[in-house]
Amino acid sequence: MLKNGSSDSSESSDLVTSSPANYEAIKSGAELEKQILEDLEKRQPQMLKTNWWAILLTFISGVCFTGSTALIKGLNTIDPMDLLVLRGLIQLVAILPFVIYERKNPFGPPNVRLYLLLEGFIGGLTLVSLFFATRRLPLGDSTTVIYSSPIFVVLMSYVFLKEACGFFRTLIIFVLMTGTVFVLQPPIFFQENAENWDVWGYTAAILCAFFTAINIVLMRKCKEVHYSLLVFHFSVWCTVMALILNFVPGPWESGGDLIDATLVQWVFAVMVGILGLVGQVLLTRALSMEGAGKVSVTRTLDIVLAFVVQVFWWEQVPGWMSILGAFLVCISVAAIGTEEQIGRLAAVIP
């Protein structure tokens, strides 16, 4: 009994004397936050540092892209394929000197020529779908649907590139698909919109998102190809396709010939090409200065800009479902863009 008592007393004494040390090991919230930030700075400094010039360039590129698509929609008396031909020619004139200066083979390196050819072909289809969808749909809706391309990117990366698709990606894709459905409002789910639903317009927007995803996957295969060659092939194909569609009757026909346009319309038509080219150059420059994650998050502002232009220029106020869908698409694209950073953050937080 005495032995046990002394043992208990000894254990109690040890507990008392050790308690202050244990309590001191527990850090306050401020100290813990400071430690986490120090660990992040030591292990992943790129997570805490942002190149704000790159973010600014990305935002300006978004303004350029939005301005270009707004002009495509605004020039409704001119055939969109005529506008695409002009844009393709402007891009060719601008990029050809770089191809010559870099002394690049126009067909690209032998081992990736097929991928380069496909990238240009799919890029042409992407712009054809973009111009057609922009002309027929509200600007905010078309932009939101087109930005849902990560759905196809993740699926194709999983199937063809054997990239992992864990719980996080699956959840984000589900949210992204939900947002896209809210914007599309297909008659199969929303019977009240059956009469006014533009089948051609929304089909073109979905195809544009699909082709964009294919292009992203193909560009991963063309990493060693100089950017000027990618733009060169892309410009050639979109020009050829638009010229062919000019002579083929179909739903893409709307408006008159560009040749008969007024001087003011010609100026705006040229601006479509210039804004598109400048936006692409600025975006490429931003990607060279900052990670793709932060750039993609900034690019979600394009959707907001599109809805702002839609409301103030065409006075088309979107419904609550379109706004909710656009919001879901924005946060999904932002989440996919910051997936790597989120993973790194989770790895260093104790």
Automatic annotation (TrEMBL):
Alphabetized, the UniProt keywords read: Membrane, Transmembrane, Transmembrane helix
Q: Does the keyword NAD apply?
A: no
Q: Where are the transmembrane segments?
A: 52-72, 84-102, 114-133, 145-161, 168-188, 200-218, 230-248, 263-283, 295-313, 319-337
Q: Tell me the Pfam families matching this sequence.
A: EamA
Q: How does it sit in the membrane?
A: Multi-pass membrane protein
**EamA domain: residues covered:** 52-184, 200-336
What is the superkingdom listed in this entry's lineage? Eukaryota
Q: Which residues form a coiled coil?
A: none
Give compartment(s): Membrane
InterPro entries, from UniProt? EamA_dom, EmrE-like
Q: Which GO terms describe its cellular component?
A: membrane
Give the matching PANTHER family: ACYL-MALONYL CONDENSING ENZYME-RELATED (PTHR22911), SOLUTE CARRIER FAMILY 35 MEMBER G1 (PTHR22911:SF6)
The protein's name in its UniProt record:
EamA domain-containing protein
